[in-house]
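Anyone opening a protein record will find just a pair of labelled lines. The record below illustrates this layout.
***
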Amino acid sequence: RCSHRLPYRLLFERSFQCGAGGLLVAHNHPSGSPLPSELDIASTRWLQALTIPLELKLVDHLIVSRGMVFSMRTAGLLDRPIS
């Protein structure tokens, strides 16, 4: 299914089942440009906000496209530093 909405509940359920302390999420951009859209950025920040009370760390959100990878963490688009 093609959607910009992340299945947050399923993502968190699986994270807890695995005993994960953090999340690394990724998606692809078949268009060829790995640059994030405004929706990508907003969704990532929303996801990050949800991780705080759950005591999870959002390690990074990667966008992959034609051999290129864009890291939201490296680009400074994640507000919460990893401690």
